[in-house]
Write a structure and sequence with these properties.
Keywords: 2Fe-2S, Iron, Iron-sulfur, Metal-binding. Belongs to the adrenodoxin/putidaredoxin family. The chain has one domain (3-99): Beta-grasp domain (Ubiquitin-like (UB roll), Roll). The protein contains two helices and five strands; from the N terminus they run E-E-H-E-H-E-E. The protein has helices at residues 24-30, 65-71; strands at 3-7, 13-17, 50-53, 81-83, 96-99. The relative contact order is 0.30.
C-alpha cells in the first residue's frame, strides 16, 4: 500500500497508508487531516483539494485540461500544483510527498 506524506499548513507532517486506486485527496479526507477541503467530493470541479506535489509528480498522469483550467483560479498556484482528487495512487507511488497550501477553501 502506498504511503503518502502530507505536509500541512500548520507545519505538521502526517504519513498515511492509502490504498491503490484511491486518490491523495481520499487519503487526507478519510484520515481527517485539515487543509484539503474537497468540497466537490473528488469530481474535479472546485479546486479545494489543491496541493503541491513534491518528489512524485512523475508517479501521476499529466493534468487534464479540466484540471489545468481549475488550477488557473486557485490561490497560490505554482508549477508543481495539482488537484489531489486527480492523483490516483498505484503500487508505483511509494514515497509520494505533498504539501497542502494554506489557501484551500
Amino acid at each position: 500500500m502506498p504511503k503518502v506524506s502530507y505536509s500541512l499548513p500548520d507545519g505538521t507532517v502526517h504519513d498515511v497508508d492509502v490504498p491503490c486506486g484511491q486518490s491523495v485527496m481520499d487519503g487526507s479526507v478519510r484520515n481527517n487531516l485539515p487543509g484539503i477541503v474537497a468540497e466537490c467530493g473528488g469530481s474535479c470541479s472546485c479546486a479545494t483539494c489543491h496541493v503541491f506535489v513534491e518528489d512524485g509528480q512523475s508517479f501521476f498522469d499529466e493534468p487534464t485540461d479540466e484540471e489545468r483550467e481549475l488550477l488557473e483560479f486557485a490561490d497560490g498556484v505554482r508549477p508543481d500544483s495539482r488537484l489531489s482528487c486527480q492523483l490516483i495512487l498505484t503500487d508505483d507511488c511509494q514515497g509520494v510527498r505533498v504539501t497542502v497550501p494554506d489557501t484551500n477553501g
